[in-house]
């Protein structure tokens, strides 16, 4: 086992929950004395966070969606692997998992962390192709790390086989302690929200996955019955311009913010109308802050929202979402009780434990050689790439 293991994290996206996870994991491993770098697009939130933590950022110009340019992205990533010479490569999310496993194919010890399975993002033939790829590519990961039990269960039920382990996402309980009444009052003053105004808050990337369009449809029903209620949507993303034209006077689109805690503190209810998830950090942050949650009944969210902490509704069901919100907005005794239960549950999602488990799996891959082959031996021969940086005799999913 390497005395000072070298870990190369590879990620696209560079924002939202995945970006935050990578920044936290890389910074933790630097503190452990490991040799760490992150290959990712050089612009965006993550690059700045890495610089502040002293983690090298190795430019990898990958877009989110698959496309013909991915052959160049594959060669670029293989070159990064060759130059950095990691002991283990940790691939985060669908794009890095696709390109990275297609290039490396077990020649370097590999961890793959989907952060939400790729086949859930599409339908029809695209979803079928994505699932077929995940089934095939699982063999090229020494560990498939799922962020929650629901994500692991989805893999098993869809025939994805391999060394699948669960390392649940965690929340920094020091940064997100329960919000007290004084903090709530100050946050409402800061954001221009009246003390008695019923407020629901949705935090997350503004995208189809996160379900803000469903939330706006539900919100019309909420305000038809309670015109005092206000909704804040916090986050940036591709659907934000479209939402601006639909929001109306009772919806505040805050965009991307550096301090999400103040929005949690101001909220009566935090709403997560996602269509699919892994285990979202926003849900854990809301739990730790002590807020009632209304969320879609999808894997990941069902692990943190119980009858005691809030309500689960069918994904995409605007009517059920509206009813769950109406049952809580303007009911401070109910939301206070659910918030207290949420804060108590959050202790089981401490980020320190999550980081320790991730470190243990990383070291185990290097020390035991379990998975696709002898991890330590492959680590010693990790530079076996041709002049283009591609593994010899290796056909990528896009051809050579």
CATH superfamily of the largest domain: Glycogen Phosphorylase B
Subunit organisation of the chains:
single chain
At CATH level 2, the architecture of the largest domain is 3-Layer(aba) Sandwich
- Content of β-strand: 5-15%
Strand order of the largest sheet: 3-2-1-4-5-6-7
Radius of gyration: 22 Å
H/E element sequence: EHEHEHEHEHEHEHEHEHEHEHEEHHHH
Class by helix and strand content?
A: alpha/beta
**Poorly predicted sequence stretches spanning 5 or more consecutive residues:** 368-400
Task: Give the overall form.
Answer: globular
Protein name: Glycosyltransferase involved in cell wall biosynthesis
GO molecular function: hexosyltransferase activity
Keywords: Glycosyltransferase, Transferase
Region (Disordered): 369-400
Which key terms come to mind for this protein?
Rossmann fold, single chain, six-stranded parallel beta sheet, Glyco_trans_4-like_N, Glycosyltransferase_grp1, glycosyltransferase, 13 strands
Protein architecture, described:
Strand 2 (35-40), helix 2 (45-53) and strand 3 form a beta-alpha-beta unit. The chain is an alpha/beta fold. Mean pLDDT is 89; it is low at 368-400. A seven-stranded parallel sheet has the order 3-2-1-4-5-6-7, sandwiched between helices. A six-stranded parallel sheet has the order 10-9-8-11-12-13, with helices on both faces. It folds into two domains: 6-170 and 350-380, Rossmann fold, CATH 3.40.50.2000; 181-348, 3-Layer(aba) Sandwich (Rossmann fold), CATH 3.40.50.2000. 49% of the residues are buried. The longest helix is centred in the last third of the chain and has 18 residues, at 351-368. It starts with 5 loop residues before the first strand and ends in a 20-residue tail after the last helix. The protein is globular. It has helices spanning 16-31, 45-53, 70-84, 93-104, 124-137, 149-157, 181-191, 212-225, 240-244, 261-266, 281-289, 318-326, 332-346, 351-368, 375-380, and strands at residues 6-11, 35-40, 57-59, 88-92, 110-113, 143-146, 164-166, 199-203, 230-234, 251-255, 269-272, 292-296, 310-313. Keywords: Glycosyltransferase, Transferase. Residues 369-400 are annotated as: Disordered. This is Glycosyltransferase involved in cell wall biosynthesis. One of its GO terms (molecular function) is hexosyltransferase activity.
